[in-house]
């Protein structure tokens, strides 16, 4: 049975490799991509011109990933998340981690990202991102894709996942919030990164802002220098910030410019 499984995996890998070498079909419908973005922003009460430019972020052609590699990546993620819950692992990790890592406000994190490189030896885990980007961009991309090789790949489950993306994101934020507060949702959220408008992923910040505002959460995109922590409250531009979607890579918040976030960390959704 093991030999049959290995043979099937090799066949799948060979097929994917052949497609990657020889398939030059164009799957991205750029007109649909731009129209979808404009409609999202107009529906949320914004000008069509406010929709971000995404053309430079996406390739016209697909990369085919063997099913066996996908299953391997899923097993690795499951193993990591199981190991991270072990008291012995936590004790060892905290022995060298910065002091702030010992602070546990409750939230477990959202949009966790596991970066793999694919090659002949199978998926290789490169890093784990606790503030990973890409989800908002990828759903826009997926909705603008058309199939060129096997139309049956657009399964009912795939369509259901795409249609439910906005609700799934809101549920994720709500679950993080309720691990620390009893209120149903925060009133105001800040997406925070250094000089956010210069960041390569700034279009995704705009997509996240649009989605959350459409669901009734006042959402600001801020540089950490715009934040103040005074009297037990995190504020920006005179407004109280209930929750932070942290896109900084200063995970220990050691930089002086991030001092307000460190002081207000109990208010944060923990994307660090």
Task: Summarize the helices and strands and which ones pair or pack.
Elements: H1 2-22, H2 30-43, H3 67-83, H4 87-94, E1 113-117, E2 124-129, H5 135-143, H6 156-163, H7 165-178, E3 188-192, H8 202-214, E4 218-222, E5 227-230, E6 233-236, E7 239-240, E8 243-246, H9 259-263
Parallel strand pairs: 3-4, 3-8
Antiparallel strand pairs: 1-2, 5-6, 6-7
Question: How would you describe this structure in keywords?
Answer:
alpha/beta, three-stranded parallel beta sheet, three-stranded antiparallel beta sheet, 9 helices, 40% helix, disordered N terminus
Summed up, what is this model?
The protein has nine helices and eight strands. With 272 residues, it is of the alpha/beta class. The strands form three sheets. The protein has a three-stranded parallel β-sheet with strand order 4-3-8, covered by helices on one side. It has a three-stranded antiparallel β-sheet with strand order 5-6-7. Strands 1-2 form a two-stranded antiparallel ribbon.
